[in-house]
Amino acid sequence: MDEDFINALEQITDGCYKVGVKDATVRPIFKYCGVADTRKRLYDAYQNRAYPQNKEVLEKIIARRDQLAHILGFESYAAFNIDNQMAHNPQIVESFLRDLIKKTDAKISEEIECIKTEMPPSVEFDSEGKCYPWDISFAIEYVKKKNYNVEERLIAEYFPMEKTVEALLSIYESFFNLEMKVEPVSDVWHEDVKAITVYKDKQVIGYLLLDLHPRNNKYSHACEISIVPGVKTGVARTPSVAVVLANFTKSTPIKPSLLYREEVQTFFHEFGHAIHAVLGATEMAVFSGPQVKRDFVEMPSQMLEEWLYTKDILKYVSSHYETGESLPDELIDRIIELKNFSIGHFIKRQAFYALLSLSLYQAGENKDIDQISAELHQEILHFLHYCPEHHNYAAFGHLTGYGARYYGYLWSKVFALDLFEYIKPHGLMNSEIGTVYAEKILSQGGSKDPNQLLQDFLGREPNQDAFLHDLGLM
Predict the structure, then answer these.
(1) What pLDDT is stored for residue 107 in this prediction?
(2) Cβ contacts of residue 192 below 8 Å, gap of 6+?
(3) Please, are residues 156 and 261 in contact by the beta-carbon 8 Å criterion?
(4) Distance of CA 99 to the CA centre of its chain
(5) How far is residue 306's CA from residue 339's CA, in Å, rounded to a whole number?
(6) What per-residue string of b and e applies to 81-113 under the rule 16 or more CB within 10 Å gives b?
(7) I want to staple 240 with a disulfide (CB 3.0 to 4.6 A). Which of 93, 137, 230, 445 is the partner?
(8) Helix (H) or strand (E) holding 207
(9) How far is residue 383's CA from residue 292's CA, in Å, rounded to a whole number?
């Protein structure tokens, strides 16, 4: 690992550092650490977070939810959980997922063959020709760097955190015709927290709190949390309050915090949820902002992620921490070209988690979680070596909040791409189309069916064409 990464770790003794199992440190090691044994030992620890304690907790949740579903007249918790969603029932969800799995079979075969052809140093395949799971991310990054000269650690030099966040916020201001002011804040939970007041037509419509740096005992993922819902009565409205959490490395006196593109995308995504919270004031608080159907809630944020794969936007938000120059055109072209470089792996992994969440909440109180996980792994992630000693479900937090609805990420991605392709010709910083989008979709919160919202905005029924074309599947 590079010196900056190591220096940011907690040093235990001379030459010995505490890594932990938080995403902010784990992901870079999986991608860039050239020592296979380090990747494996960290992967073993990461895949067994909260095991075995949470296995017992999860078993109890599954049993109680199954009982609840039967009391309410449903055959399973999955059926109850999905009944009022866009998908309506588990059968439609499973059909959607298995269709995607089938469509990406050729993609994942190409990706694995590419890795085998290159055979990155310290990467080995097992006796059945399968890649070890702790090697897949490293192998993907190695091939990208060798064949396409795309080195994410060097690209990060164009994304100093403070300037990048400022540029990202200005995109939201332009597209949604908002004004955001960073305000002094005190008496909050940590000195790192920053406050933003959001204005629309010179009226305060919301307050956003940014908590962007890691610390002990802090939530280690990234998310948006709505604290106070926006409520509208006639022309009057109550400003909303939301928090955006992330875990970006802090700047030092000699070097700013540099964001990987994945982190830039994460912030843009989570801030998209926050904008939904700010713009989505409804008469009933329970429907305010992102309080929409769970298989639709990720649509606005995933749609906005597409901004970061367009040349003008990448030019706008990038600024080398030493020279101030934007990303070079040829590098941007390669970034866009490689957008879906490992899409087969991504879709298969997401489909695995989606079908795991669906399967665990099908009919029956008692589930053999390890057996279900193993069968799905060998069916969907058949290109990866299976490790029975791993129990990643014990830290799969979406199994509680999302329940059987983890499929919502892929489901809502379909609509995100459909809307993006509709908006893009109008201009990605065009406040006219941004205002229409906010009024017809975001401002409605969960007060209307998402299918109707999409049709109102698009002027037609939504479809999968843009999604499948983006993935290279049509």
Answers:
(1) 95
(2) 211, 212, 213, 215
(3) yes
(4) 22
(5) 10
(6) bbeebbbeebeebbebbeebbebbeebbeebbe
(7) 230
(8) strand 203-211
(9) 36
Instruction: Give the model's pLDDT for residue 74.
Output: 98
How many Cβ atoms sit within 10 Å of the Cβ of residue 421? Answer: 16
Under 8 Å CB-to-CB from 170, ≥6 apart: which residues? none
Which pLDDT tens digit goes with each residue over 71-101? 999 999 999 999 999 999 999 999 999 999 9
CA dihedral sign of residues 202, 203, 204, 206: negative
Peptide bond between residue 184 and the one before it cis (omega within 30 degrees of 0): no
Task: Delimit the domains of the chain by residue range.
Answer: 3-46, 50-148+340-474, 164-304
Distance, in Å, from the CA atom of 359 to the CA atom of 296, rounded to the nearest integer, reads 21
Instruction: State yes or no: is 270 an active-site residue.
Output: yes
Distance CA(104)–CA(464), nearest Å, equals 15
Distance separating alpha carbons of residues 474 and 467, to the nearest angstrom: 9
Determine which helix (DSSP H) or strand (DSSP E) holds 204, and give its type and residue range: strand 203-211
**Cα separation values, 309 from 174, 303, 345, 462, Å:** 18, 11, 19, 22
Structure tokens at 422: 């509709």
Task: Give how far Cα 392 sits from Cα of 196, 262, 272, 389, 395, Å.
Answer: 36, 22, 28, 10, 6
pLDDT of residue 8: 84
Structure tokens at 432: 């006219």
Neighbours of 146 (CB within 10 A): 12
Predicted pLDDT of residue 135? 97
Cα separation, 410 vs 423, whole angstroms: 20
Q: What is the CATH number of domain 164-304?
A: 3.40.390.10
Residues of the chain with pLDDT under 70: none
d(CA 451, CA 458): 11
Distance (Å, rounded) from C-alpha 157 to C-alpha 2?
13
**What's the fold here for domain 50-148+340-474?**
Neurolysin; domain 3 (1.10.1370)
- Catalytic residue, chosen from 111, 157, 270, 305, is 270
**What per-residue confidence (pLDDT) applies to 317?**
97
Q: 384 has which bridge partners?
A: 131
First to last CA, the chain: 39
Residue 242: name the closest of 281, 213, 200 by CA: 281
Write the single-letter amino acid at 402: Y
Q: What's the Cα-to-Cα distance from 385 to each of 113, 223, 370, 389, rounded to whole Å?
A: 15, 31, 16, 12
Beta bridge partners of 228: 241
